[in-house]
Amino acid sequence: AQKITQTQPGMFVQEKEAVTLDCTYDTSDPSYGLFWYKQPSSGEMIFLIYQGSYDQQNATEGRYSLNFQKARKSANLVISASQLGDSAMYFCAMREEVAGSYQLTFGKGTKLSVIP
Amino acid sequence: EAQVTQNPRYLITVTGKKLTVTCSQNMNHEYMSWYRQDPGLGLRQIYYSMNVEVTDKGDVPEGYKVSRKEKRNFPLILESPSPNQTSLYFCASSRFGTSTDTQYFGPGTRLTVL
Question: Distance from A1 to chain B by nearest Cα, in Å?
């Protein structure tokens, strides 16, 4: 089974509108971290937001917020007031302990296109 | 500015010619890691290092070597590159190697092996 599932290969959003990018995860470890990264066409991987498994409140960073539903094992990214510069690939990732390693496991990504 | 740097950013080489991709971070992070990103396969970890002189294999270590002689540097070495190592490579670092530490990525190195 995939550890990170992003079911939306591509999405379109109108400029200034809000958009939700879906992410579900699978783990039996009680301690884990959930991360969202943005990858523009230039290729770099930019960290956006983090949610810890023990965090009671949803994380927010400027226009980004994470809708964390632990029982459903979902960690959706919400981008408010979309801008043209938000057009990029977005990756959900989870970090957990596996055999002494703490690597990130990434989903396959969602390509977001912001329409003027 | 806190950052992870990689060099070179772009490299075209030929099969069998040894190359090194450098990675450096100025955040005093203990954990460093190398990933490769390929279409359809996503990001996969090559090697990681929990601290100086401590390195371990990730998911796809074959054909690669690393070393961690200093805290800030974590070079990736391809002793005899082959075309299947054509990929986008990322170096990343985090303060510690735990599940709650954010990994920050370098700008990436696009490698083409002919």
Answer: 15
